[in-house]
UniProtKB/TrEMBL annotation, chains A, B, C:
Keyword Transport found: no
Species of origin: Pseudomonas helleri
Domain of life: Bacteria
Family according to the record: Belongs to the urea transporter family.
Segments crossing the lipid bilayer: 37-54, 60-77, 89-105, 111-133, 140-159, 194-214, 221-240, 252-268, 275-293, 299-318
Protein name: Urea transporter
InterPro entries found in the cross-reference section: Ammonium/urea_transptr (IPR029020), Urea_transporter (IPR004937), Urea_transporter_bac (IPR017807)
UniProt entry keywords in alphabetical sequence: Cell membrane, Membrane, Transmembrane, Transmembrane helix
Site residues (Important for channel permeability), renumbered to this chain: T306
PANTHER family, per database record: UREA TRANSPORTER (PTHR10464)
Amino acid sequence: MDATAPTSKWSQLASQNAVIEFIDVTLRGCAQVMFQNNPLTGLFFFAAIFVGGFGEGNPAMAFGCLLGTVVATLFGMHLKDRASWKAGLYGYNGCLVGAALPTFLANTPTLWLCIILGSIVSVIVMICIADILKTWKVAALTAPFVLVTWAMLLASYAFTGLDGSALPTPALAHPLVQDSDLAYSASQFVHSTLYGISEVFLISSVISGLLFLIGLAVESLWAAVFAICGTVLAVLTAMFLGADQASVNNGMYAFSAVLTAIALGSTFNTPSWRVLIYTIVGVIFTVFVQGAMNTVLTPAGIPTLTMPFVLASWLFLVPNKDVMPAHRQ
Amino acid sequence: MDATAPTSKWSQLASQNAVIEFIDVTLRGCAQVMFQNNPLTGLFFFAAIFVGGFGEGNPAMAFGCLLGTVVATLFGMHLKDRASWKAGLYGYNGCLVGAALPTFLANTPTLWLCIILGSIVSVIVMICIADILKTWKVAALTAPFVLVTWAMLLASYAFTGLDGSALPTPALAHPLVQDSDLAYSASQFVHSTLYGISEVFLISSVISGLLFLIGLAVESLWAAVFAICGTVLAVLTAMFLGADQASVNNGMYAFSAVLTAIALGSTFNTPSWRVLIYTIVGVIFTVFVQGAMNTVLTPAGIPTLTMPFVLASWLFLVPNKDVMPAHRQ
Amino acid sequence: MDATAPTSKWSQLASQNAVIEFIDVTLRGCAQVMFQNNPLTGLFFFAAIFVGGFGEGNPAMAFGCLLGTVVATLFGMHLKDRASWKAGLYGYNGCLVGAALPTFLANTPTLWLCIILGSIVSVIVMICIADILKTWKVAALTAPFVLVTWAMLLASYAFTGLDGSALPTPALAHPLVQDSDLAYSASQFVHSTLYGISEVFLISSVISGLLFLIGLAVESLWAAVFAICGTVLAVLTAMFLGADQASVNNGMYAFSAVLTAIALGSTFNTPSWRVLIYTIVGVIFTVFVQGAMNTVLTPAGIPTLTMPFVLASWLFLVPNKDVMPAHRQ
């Protein structure tokens, strides 16, 4: 997973200059949201984020993303495990905290303090979960991001200083009544699948989706392939099961599945037929977990974020060695 | 826990013929729902399930049970741990998934796809939880069944393709107002206790309850004794605490306690006075956990399934070696 | 953490006389609620509890506290780990169960049976959680108390034999509307901070708060200092974030933070600048977790108890060795 040829000159620079090293690690932090340890991937990802944030009229989200990654990387710099820091593993949760908080909370000075605090705490939670899970050789994935963001979004109901007016209203769950008026076309399908990729960073943008794919392909072609297959399979599964069509169209049933597909298919396994079948089952189950978590979080009034991916992938990664004939560790 | 005398000829056949071995393992899978590693027990259990399913006018539930056990056993056959597979440990969660889904979801083609997917995933979750818990030498119990089924039942609220009209309507909890008109008699008490046993498989049937007891006794007399004592104690505790009488009558406060009693009293400990007292405390506490989970799941609109048993038994099994003078492992 | 000079004569007596040893361990059990292994601390704590219980017109709470500690200590006496028993580590959860149940459930004979059962089960849960967490060298904290009490409070909705009329009514969460009529003064601030300390035992009393502080100082001046700093920082943070003023005034946003401050600042770390900064972040995050849990438990109709402390402290204690240059274990 280490970047080699295209970044060798850059790597040399980074090892000599502290500022360039910091930029390098910050970029890797952004890339690690989709498991890539490559500063160029991170650059494409940040481009996608700024295109998406400004395109959706929410630039705070893009700047929050940058701030969160920087703060988390700064804080992580003072910890013992330099290897994890250098790989950007302390940065990616802060990146997502910085994307999610401005998406659901109003833009106030307290919001920015929350992004700073949340990014710092995300590093602590990262070490905590990584420490616990290394007993079973499983990664923390984006669980630190989800837990810290959930805590702050839930707290916004209790604190007048945090304005969560963009959050869903807490309600009792009820069976879905499909709004059948939504027409469907091939072009809509392509949009949905690309939104599925960009929604990993809470963005609905075709251009961002493409930039994320390019960023993935720069480091790993397999990752890009599994991302595409994951989002297509998830959109089809959600449509087959009769999920809310507006949500399907926005990629809301696909973004967790995209991460499951990359994780199971290319990051923690070497692609093979057995791995492919395992990944397909994992992606389909992720869609069920997405529906289940949508239901169970309705009374809490918070979004699932990427927790369906985290739960489904943990379930499928722990038994990896019992299911797969050989695997990378 | 291995079946010996009455099945020795059968065991020999099973070791020579792949089809008979598969039938053997499928039967053991059903028997493992109540911790018994014996194909004859599984035969009695399947008889009880079909009697109950047809008796209640829900044959889909019986066929679902069979399908779930078969699919889970088929899938488990391809995994590394042959010993677990042979003991039926990959089958029992699929068996319960197949019983639960047709009980709460309408009989559509999608339901049967869900049973197949759920049974496969139940094996993966089984390996995952067993792997995690072996750190503390505790078994996965029926947690894989509960988690997979919960995911699918919760998802039914989000997907029009799954019709969960038999699920409880999500609501806010409120203190119980007892319907005091229900008369009570010795015969009703006997029914309640037998329902408590058959409800482990989501069946309310006196004959099924008796068949389950016979199936238990075939392999372990102690298991049958603890099942009876567990259901009696649970029904009495729930009545003393003033639980909803209709639920008590249907065995809804007893089925988790039955499993706690068998697990603590006979499966994971050798019966003794100390074990008996520990089991009694465990069974009474299971009734509290049942009431607590009924409350906490009210807004989610899903049943507790056997989670009260799982939680109470984990709590009591982890400290086993610190509490018991000697114990089987 | 062992009591030395002021209790040496007492220690000698305790080692010779079983009754005095039992009293000694019971007092240590009470002191361990705030991590102190000192019978004199326990004596001050019990004084604070009785002053508070009678002062608030709820003496049952004080007697429940005593009963819970005694029952848990009695039960723990029969277990293998004598060192934990002698340090009062089996008693503190029973102490809190005995304080919490009479605070939220009506005073009936069943209540007292629940205190006895809950205290016994709290010891079992204590061993269970301690066993699990020792894999990562983290303590169970007050999690056993919270889990057992939650189970019984939730069960009170399902059982007419338990009258939980003092529990909050289950409701859907909604953004806080601040009641701005509450005036604020320096004297109110002092009260709030002292309530923050006494509310660890579910008491709102200035005198109790002072007695708890004296009890802490008897064993560890640092613990008392961190308790004061923790409650002050938590009250200020909650006010800055715009938490419900009535709750802030009653110390409801401070009691978990007080425990986080003592745990992170003095019990599991040796005070230093690095530790101080870590503790400040931990205390501020505990206030967020308190707000989050207030929201998420609204539909369940139960109080958070000290769970915000438990969750925040676990998150900050597991990574301790990766963050701190040196630390006590």
